[in-house]
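Human: I wish I could look at a protein chain and see how it folds. This is the protein in question:
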Amino acid sequence: MTKDKFLQQLNDSLKRLSEKERADILQDYEEHFTFGLEEGKTEEEIAASLGSPSQIAKEILADYHLDKVTTSATLGNMFRAIWAVIGLGFFNLVIVFAPAIALAAFIFSGWVMGISLIASPLLVIIDAILHPSAFTLKLFNLFVSLALCGIGYFIVIGMLFVTKLAKNGFVRYLKFNVALVKGGLKHDQ
């Protein structure tokens, strides 16, 4: 593959990035070709040593989305980061997607349970208005629902911490996974 074809494929694969970021990346890869040519290598040898432009683009996009989710952890950024890491290879579909679904289900169910328990006194009051008979039973239900409301507050407070911890942990897990896919982990010794 020639230098122009390599850079064109890389540019096409990086369309999601801004023009400035793409220009910086393409400049870096042009320098690879310049240094390689100075060492006496052909453009085809340099392109082969760099690897597939589409795979390089997937790795760059995964890094880009992971950096973006680190600075601004919105739900959309998180999903884009997960999708970019999954795009690095089929193996990541199982390794990243399954834990993401399990973690999201746990967090969602915790929030639903906490909010439901907080809303329980309101539901008892609505029930008392709609069915006014057996006042003492309604009072008992109200006191029990107030206790459940307190438990719900503790669950919601806990879920705030669990959600923040899970987000930070999952971003670290995605970064670990990207490092593993890019060529293994390097241990500094």
Summary: Residues 90-189 form one domain.
